[in-house]
Design goal:
By secondary structure, the protein is an all-alpha fold. The protein has helices at 4-33, 62-86, 92-113, 118-130, 132-150, 160-185, 190-228, 230-233, 245-271, 282-298, 305-308, 321-324, 329-333. The model is unreliable at 1-7, 30-35 and 319-334 (pLDDT under 50).
Length: 334
Amino acid sequence: MPSATSTSQRSLAFANFSLCAALTVLASFVASAQAEDRTPPPWEFTDPKHDPFNPLRYIASNTLTAIAISLVLAVALVQTWMLWRKGGRCMLAMVIGEYTWAIGFGTRFGLHTQPDSQAIYIAYYLFIVLSPCAFIASEYMLLGRLARYLKSHRHLLIPPQRITIVFVASDITTFLVQAAGAILSISKNQKLSKTGEHIFLAGLALQLASFALFIMLALRFHYRIKTMDPHIWNVDAGKPWHQDWRMLGFVLLVSSVGILIRCVYRVIELSQGYLGHLATTEAFFYGLDSLPLFIAIAVYIPFWPGRMIPTIDDLAKLDKSNALDGRSSDEVKA
């Protein structure tokens, strides 16, 4: 039978592949489905707020777009180098997601010159909204790696080798629900389009609930180790900050909070509809979506898992027998 580790690795690989493939296929699909042959209205640029064909209801700022792409690509390139030099394969999904996220920002250049293009808008929305699914997958992987490193499986409600399987499966499911909703929402049939919008919202809400549960699991893990196993909590106390697991654990929580803020924002935004106040205000997009997500990924640069735990890529190969019966290694030795 295949091990839980190999299964989780296949799950993550499938998540990476499905993200890239689905976004590419969906973007191509909507581009052809939304091909338009009409003359732009005379108020396309002078009065975007009242332009019924402009899905954003504003003209995307090229300056902000350029800044966003530059920052995201800078983080992606640095993390790519760190992944190659320092290891940390559990962060591969995040790195891939950063590149697809940058593509999403790039489509805003197209929306600046063609603000009424439904095809560009939907491609933009898919890349921007779905790419963070990959960030979430890496958070799931990292918590499992920390539990293995500390041999503290009993402090998790779910064995570490199962966390990736359970939560990445949830991530893929919500991703597919959102993708299905996005496909239906481009229909010219108003009823079908509204149904797609509701399905998309349901996918976002499920993702929010799943990730909120994960954060509670991570908080419980840290709390139980600090209060019940202080020797494990202080196991890296004598090491430099960049080799202290507690710093990495704290960064995991900070990053997760950033993603959670974005998830809450997206659920509220879509509950207002595609033409709601949040969806049609550029400041909210950057302040409540882009900034929290950027912090969530950038915070790992000085605290790269492969640097802080040099053996992190070998942890998945460890014997999981202790984890399966829910005991820590100390208990086994006792």
